[in-house]
Amino acid sequence: MELQNDLLLRAAKGEKTERTPVWLMRQAGRILPEYRAVRESVSGFIELAQTPELAAEVTIQPVDLLGVDAAIIFSDILVIPEAMGLPYEMVEKRGPWFPNTVNNESDLKKLRIANGANDLSYVIKAIEITKKNLNGRVPLIGFAGAPWTIFAYMVEGSGSKTFSKAREMLYTQPAFSHKLLQMITDSTINYLKAQIAAGANLVQIFDSWAGILGPKQYAEFSHQYISQICDAITEVPVTVFAKGAFFAREEMSKLNCETIGLDWNMGIAESRKLIGTEKTLQGNLDPAALYGNPEQVRNATIDMMEQFKGSRHIANLGHGVYPDIDPENVKVFIQTVKDFN
Ligand SMILES: Cc1c2[nH]c(c1CCC(=O)O)Cc1[nH]c(c(CCC(=O)O)c1C)Cc1[nH]c(c(CCC(=O)O)c1C)Cc1[nH]c(c(C)c1CCC(=O)O)C2
């Protein structure tokens, strides 16, 4: 199907666009009252994510209600551990929790490499329904967690400020760590390929915990695996968002991907210098800027746009939108990008 709005894809490839495309990380299922209404009709996040018709509905909500230039499929990065044999729960107000964790070779034997189309058929079904109902209005973004971020949850068993157990593993059991990272990488490639076959027009890799590694460890335990994924995905543009990996920007410029996501700690001019002009940059307004009044949101957005001006850019926040942000301010952010030239 021909896309009516392909700004995101053209910007990712570095082609000329009439204006800068805009979407928000975590736009589906955080800020909209319409999302909460759907969410309350089921038992919880996991049931919602596993019900393709409803997942498709909340994926499209931000397109209808906010006017973003892309949809991102409603799911979670933690579906990969589950598909490998490590189920998770989503604890209200606390976040993800794994009843079992992976700590040694014998835990590893209980895991398998996920087959995207079979083990995650509910996501694939949700993508198919979303594509049909979007009817070509905007591109659909597929996604997965980066292997290191997924590893961190599988070893730790929940969120953590330091992920010290996961980082301990890299020092005390490097061979085990590499085996698990490779299994996650192979699963992720299968999964992204299945998302693309079902209709995802671009895929994004979220390395949310990149910033807790030092540069050497990042190169060995994260970057290398992201690089494998980028090399394997040849069908659609790839975006890599490694939060906090300011130290790896120059290395990231060599990845086989179209777009690098910036968080709000990364200076725009400095990032462009380190990454060069062969990549599109995505980001990077501080999500907290949306707590301001509409005038402040507008000014902060214009300030960001001016810094990116003239170079390959997809407008976004520097991380996911916070759940208590007023959707009206999100609309101001989006409209300001659309009006900017
Ligand atoms: C680290 C991470 C996770 N999940 C994700 C990341 C990477 C991005 C980032 O760094 O923010 C990615 C994610 N999670 C979700 C999406 C859906 C699409 C989107 O809107 O971007 C995406 C892209 C839905 C979700 N994932 C989750 C919810 C909230 C669940 C609910 O509705 O109760 C949603 C809508 C739950 C989740 N899932 C995760 C956590 C820590 C939590 C709990 C806190 C939170 O809300 O973020 C793991």
From TrEMBL:
A GO MF term: uroporphyrinogen decarboxylase activity
Keyword Lyase: yes
Location(s), subcellular: Cytoplasm
Pathway entry: Porphyrin-containing compound metabolism; protoporphyrin-IX biosynthesis; coproporphyrinogen-III from 5-aminolevulinate: step 4/4
Gene3D superfamilies: 3.20.20.210
GO cellular component, one term: cytosol
Keywords linked to the UniProt accession: Cytoplasm, Decarboxylase, Lyase, Porphyrin biosynthesis
GO biological process, one term: protoporphyrinogen IX biosynthetic process
Enzymatic class: lyase
Catalytic activity: uroporphyrinogen III + 4 H(+) = coproporphyrinogen III + 4 CO2
EC number: 4.1.1.37
Site feature location: Transition state stabilizer: 76
NCBIfam families: hemE (TIGR01464)
Subunit-level organization: Homodimer.
Family (UniProt): Belongs to the uroporphyrinogen decarboxylase family.
Protein name per Swiss-Prot or TrEMBL: Uroporphyrinogen decarboxylase
